[in-house]
Amino acid sequence: MTKELITFDKKNKIFHLHNDQISYLLAVEDGGTLCHLYFGKKVNNYHGELRYPRVDRGFSGNLPGSLDRTFSRDSLPKEYSTAGEMDYHTPAAVVRQKDGSNTLFLTYKDYKIEDGKPDLEGLPHSWVENKDGAETLIVTLEDQKTKLNFELIYTIYRDRPVIVRSVKVKNAGNETVNIEKVASMQIDFVDRDFDSITLPGAHAHERRVDRNHINQGIHVFASHRGTSSHQMNPFLALVDPDTNEFNGDAYGLAFVYSGNHKFEVEKDQFAQTHVNVGINDFNFNWKLPAGNEFQTPEVLMVYSDQGLNKMSQAFHSIIHDRIMRSKYKDQVRPIVVNNWEATYFDFDEEKLKPIVDKAKELGIEMFVLDDGWFGHRDDDNSSLGDWQVYEKKFPQGLDHFADYVHGQGLKFGLWFEPEMISIDSNLYQKHPDYLMHVPGRKPSPSRNQYLLDLGRKEVRDNIFNQMEKILDSGKIDYIKWDMNRHLSDIYQVDLPADQQGEVYHRYVLGLYDLLEKIVDRYPDLLIEGCSGGGGRFDAGMAYYNSQIWASDDSDAIDRLTIQYGTSLVYPQSMMTSHVSVSPNEQNGRITPFKTRGIVAMWGDLGYELDLTKLSESDQKAVAEQVAEYKKIRAVTQYGTFYRLKNAQEGNQCAWETVSPDKNEVVLSTVKVMASAQPYFTKTKLVGLDTNKQYEDQASHQVYGGDELMNLGIYDPVEHGDFMAYRYYFKAIN
Ligand code: GLA
User: Fold this and answer.
1) Ligand 1 centroid vs 638 CA: distance in angstroms?
2) Interhelix angle for 616-638 vs 593-600, to 10°?
3) Rounded CA gap, 577 and 152, in Å?
4) Which architecture characterizes domain 652-731 according to CATH?
5) What is the CATH number assigned to the segment(s) 6-322?
6) pLDDT tens-digit profile of 180-209?
7) pTM of structure
8) Is the CB of 553 under 6 A from ligand 1?
9) CA 331, 334, 338: angle at the middle one, nearest 5?
10) Percentage of the chain exceeding pLDDT 90
11) Which end of the chain has the lower number of beta carbons within 10 A, N or C?
12) Residue 359: count of CB within 10 angstroms of its CB
């Protein structure tokens, strides 16, 4: 018999979700109130005491009909707050009813404990390999008047410090209601003084680590751009003020969703911290007729008692092992050359062939044909929506070129932007209404392109059928799925007025549906996500895309910050990272070729430049980098990842990956600015076996694991800015 993961103490009405690492405790209190007791390090046995104290709090009212002034839903830490139940916290859910009221009063109804984890239909979700791997608790809260049922769904995995939460709203009443807000989870902490860590950014400047102290008030980290966005990644960590990479408590929350999101952190009058995570309620209004239900996306909740690295490792592991599905997720990722920064739109088959030839010579494994191969696209003003090959550039067809690439022993990848339409396109001529717009208003362009309304099935079918014609050739090994603008002009022409608040979410559901069809039909396709770089880099996308282009900024020094932030949540194998030319096309910075290689090897290595234009010495460097990367990539892509030094906080960046058996270690360090009289610095390795001897594969010097961890290695002192170093150690017997 395997150990159960969820127990229910019937007498005290306490649920305990636990494994060897964590405990999550909730209890049914007075008035059927579902209250939060604890989330953190494992406790063996909760005796039902150590409860939230009862005191009379002024201006925090009490249960209807009760004379007990010491019990208030306004102060008690709860699992789910709604509008109007004498709880002044930012509600997790708001539902407008037929009589115009939005008051709900949720009370405990019943519970179910199931083996495994239910799938979320139409939404990306974490899964279990077999039912023994997890248990799920479903607690139903009911509003007596409307008969709305809120099922709070909690899954605990057997071997991870993770709780996965979502909510299903069921309308068991007789009247239609409108959901104006529905968070996927809420958690309330008592007695915690937190810092928040978020990943804000911009196009070409994604996921910078931002840490702030949470003071009294409501703090919102959100996107309402229709996608998870460059501007605010759907992630939040709450950490103790002294938590660092290796020590201290960290609670990480990652939303498995690619559309509008909202993370609300409210530090209340009693310095308690109330948190909601869910779909952004901006322009959200979901009509729920009697008998219908609404399932929210899910949230991954990670607890770490050993700082941010351990939190990140838990995220990496669940996203890689239990959200990704692609068969590539465990294969070493191919080294790519992409023609975007090499040629932009100015190419044809004859111009590309020498790049392919050179790629073969240098050991590169895949050629990716980027934007500009379809319609009559010579710049970014036309042809989106016309997924037929541009004959001027490929007079003998795309298959002919794909055969050439394959003939050179490389795989062939192709760029698509399936969610978009250009006015200058055949698709627009035929179906102008496919373009998302508000009738009677002119829609706004962005990069001179517009959104296809993926909420509509006929639009998705049209795009799928076009893609199918290309992909059915069987000559495409990889696609890069791009999205180069955000949503605007929010309206779905075939929906009635009272459902226009559903459009943002329907768009995302439509996108997931289209992706699912592609994944299902072409299981051998490696799909890389992209949205003007890393504008849709989220755990939801990991369900369909096993890798994502991290940023349109390929400068090695800017990438240090971008990749550092990305690594807080997302595994290395999910992040693509390319060497491009110097001076860099985005910021003009000049960096050594070696540095660009070392930084790009943080993720899945590729080249984003014209290989034929490189100097001989740079070509030699590419061949060496490629050969070296082939030796280390199993460790760098899939090993346990550690952040050691953050360039955002100092002059150095350092990161390390260790193979599961601790026999192979790759350490990379970058010194940003040089100085005439530098202080000596050391980098101490972590996560090694203290009883093993490790040989540096370059110098053949042998060190004990304890030496490398305790004494550390001296960082080289060299002239020049932006110098990078990589060390590859292997254990010897
Ligand atoms: C986006 C991508 C780039 C490239 C261009 C093509 O910006 O991030 O890598 O594919 O689109 O238009």
Assistant:
1) 26
2) 20
3) 39
4) Sandwich (2.60)
5) 2.70.98.60
6) 999 999 999 998 999 999 999 999 999 999
7) 0.98
8) no
9) 150
10) 98
11) N
12) 25
